[in-house]
Amino acid sequence: MKRYCFKTDKFKTIKDEDENTNPGVYGLELSKWIEKELKILGYAVEEIISEDWGWCVICKYKPFLLWVGCQGEYINEQLVWCCFAEAEKPIFRNPFKKLDIQESLEKLNKDLFQLLNKNFYLDEQI
After folding, report:
1. Measuring CA to CA, which residue among 55, 59, 54 is closest to residue 108?
2. How far, rounded to the nearest angstrom, does the alpha carbon of residue 46 sit from its chain's CA centroid?
3. At 5, is the secondary structure helix, strand, or coil?
4. Is 3 helix (H, G, I), strand (E, B) or coil?
5. Which of 60, 7, 5 lies closest to 38 in space, CA to CA?
6. H/E element, 105
7. Which of 31, 34, 35, 91 qualifies as a FRET site for 48, CA 20 to 30 Å off?
8. Phi-psi category of 76—alpha, beta or left, where left has phi over 0 and alpha has psi -120 to 50?
9. Crossing angle between the packed helical segments 102-119 and 28-40, to the nearest 10 degrees
10. What is the pLDDT of residues 7-29, one digit of tens each?
11. What DSSP designation does 111 have?
12. Could you count the other beta carbons within 10 Å of the beta carbon of residue 53?
């Protein structure tokens, strides 16, 4: 999994947002921005859900799960934002039916990188 991390003042933490994640983990504003930008790129974003590690922008559920993870955490007193693309095969599926998730994951990862790289300085050192 490739993680893209950056620092910016474009996104803020929302009061009590980390009640839906782990304490000190943010990213709701970032996930809403990602949702809007992915829709412009043609993705049919289904919803945004909270996870313990941050926020999950669900691009599609079927025939497999395709999503972008968004998180913000304070590192050395600076808020650092990170995003990553992920795809998951369903647990219960026809074992004789081939399900290739790699092409969709690579496209989402490429689109995510280009989107973030165009708007922010991606820091590989974080």
Report:
1. 59
2. 13
3. strand
4. strand
5. 60
6. helix 102-119
7. 91
8. left
9. 110
10. 999 999 999 999 999 999 999 99
11. H
12. 15
Rg (CA), the chain: 15
Q: Which residues pair with 80 in a beta bridge?
A: 73
Note the pTM of the prediction, 2 decimals: 0.91
Helix (H, G, I), strand (E, B) or coil at 1: coil
The DSSP secondary-structure symbol of 92 reads S
pLDDT > 90? residue 89:
no
Q: Please tell me the distance from the alpha carbon of residue 99 to that of residue 122, in angstroms, as a whole number.
A: 32
Residues 41, 64: Cα–Cα separation, whole Å: 20
Which residue bears the tokens 């968004």?
70
Q: List the structure tokens of 87.
A: 């795809």
What's the rounded Cα separation, in Å, for the pair 11 and 81? 9
